[in-house]
């Protein structure tokens, strides 16, 4: 899987690094594997897309992102607000991050506030964890 993640229990954040080529099934596999763990309920999330090299041309990504936002929102613990910061330096990935942000904001049950940023420093500031490794 081109998505690797670690859990920082001290700072209550899941850090996911995406590398190479990421396809829809990778997104859902990460979501299920990382966020089905009861110990991360209510944690913040940092998605580092600095090393994403390409997105495959497998059709429209809008429906995939909308479905992922719905699945993700259903996994959110009720009444527990948290934040998701997406670091996306290139224009295409940034745009897709913003699309996901929009879908996530209207998904029923979503308790995560999503921010999309060009730099890791901005994302860390949004999460309030300036020293979390990526």
Short description:
This protein is of the alpha/beta class and 134 residues long. Helices cover 37% and strands 28% of the residues. It has a five-stranded mixed β-sheet, with helices on both faces.
What are the SSEs and their pairings?
Elements: E1 3-8, E2 13-21, H1 24-35, E3 44-54, H2 62-75, E4 82-87, H3 91-106, E5 112-117, H4 120-127
Parallel strand pairs: 2-3, 3-4, 4-5
Antiparallel strand pairs: 1-2
Helix pairs in contact: 1-2, 2-3
Report on this model:
By secondary structure, the chain is an alpha/beta fold. It has a single domain, classed as 2-Layer Sandwich (Transcription Regulator spoIIAA). 37% of the residues lie in helices and 28% in strands. It has helices at 24-35, 62-75, 91-106, 120-127; strands at 3-8, 13-21, 44-54, 82-87, 112-117. It has a five-stranded mixed beta sheet, sandwiched between helices. Helix 1 (24-35) runs parallel beside helix 2.
Order of helices and strands: EEHEHEHEH
Mean pLDDT: 90
Helix share bin: 25-40%
**Count of helical stretches:** 4
**What percentage of the residues does DSSP assign to strands (E)?**
25-35%
Shape: globular
Count of strand segments = 5
| CATH architecture descriptor | 2-Layer Sandwich
> How large is the radius of gyration?
14 Å
Structural class: alpha/beta
Placed side by side, the strands forming the largest sheet appear as 1-2-3-4-5
* Biggest beta-sheet profile: 5 strands, mixed
CATH first level: Alpha Beta
Distance between the termini: 17 Å
Q: Looking at CATH, which topology would you report?
A: Transcription Regulator spoIIAA
Low-pLDDT stretches are none
How many structural domains does the protein architecture include? 1
């Amino acid at each position: 899987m081109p998505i690797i993640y670690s859990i920082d229990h001290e700072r209550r954040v899941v850090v996911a690094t995406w590398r190479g080529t990421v396809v829809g099934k990778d997104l859902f596999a990460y979501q299920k594997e990382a966020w089905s763990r009861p110990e991360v309920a209510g944690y913040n999330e940092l998605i580092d897309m600095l090393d994403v090299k390409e997105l495959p041309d497998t059709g429209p990504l809008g429906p995939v992102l909308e479905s992922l936002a719905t699945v993700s929102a259903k996994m959110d613990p009720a009444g527990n607000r948290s934040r998701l910061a997406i670091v996306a330096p290139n224009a295409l990935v940034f745009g897709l991050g913003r699309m996901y942000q929009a879908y996530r904001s209207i998904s029923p049950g979503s308790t995560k506030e999503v921010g999309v940023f060009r730099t890791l420093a901005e994302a860390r500031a949004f999460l309030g964890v300036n020293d979390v490794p990526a």
